[in-house]
Design goal:
26% strand; alpha+beta; 25% helix; binds tetrahydrodeoxyuridine; 4 helices
């Protein structure tokens, strides 16, 4: 577990981005904020499309944002979401997003935070969310 970082700042970054979520079909808005090993935070939101499968989840958007800015390692992610932008419950990451996180971190030391607010949240490692995972080390 990556324990030395500012949870408040990471969760607030996700909450502050939620307004940018584009979800006219599901009306389920999601936002994520990724902490890279550089110390920088990158946000992402779900972006849906009239051709449904062309849309993307908030978590992958945030991770790809980080990679597009030169990052190769992420150490934490905070996720918020809910119907019509109302955060009434926890929003756990989907399986595809868990696998994408796996590509850019050490699962035992990657912190995944699901939050209802800056002071009501749960955190776990990616290894707990994606046990016995398949990664780059599996194919060399
Ligand atoms: N969604 C995410 O952004 N992240 C997840 O981990 C689960 C689902 C989005 C995809 C879609 O735009 C909406 O939530 C409803 O599934």
């Amino acid at each position: 577990m990556n324990s030395k970082f500012n949870r408040f700042e990471l969760i607030k970054s996700a909450i502050d981005s939620l307004n940018f979520s584009y979800a006219p079909y599901s009306h389920f808005n999601v936002a994520a904020a990724v902490l890279a090993s550089s110390g920088k935070i990158y946000t992402g939101v779900n972006v849906e499309n009239a051709s449904y499968p062309a849309g993307i989840c908030a978590e992958r958007n945030a991770i790809f944002h980080a990679v597009a800015c030169g990052e190769k390692e992420i150490t934490a992610i905070a996720i918020v979401g809910g119907l019509n932008g109302q955060i009434t419950d926890y929003c756990p990451p989907c399986g595809v997003c868990r696998q994408v996180m796996r590509e850019f971190c050490d699962p035992e030391h990657m912190t995944v935070i699901i939050a209802k607010s800056t002071d009501e949240y749960k955190e776990m490692t990616l290894a707990e969310l994606l046990p016995e995972s398949f990664g780059t080390d599996s194919i060399v």
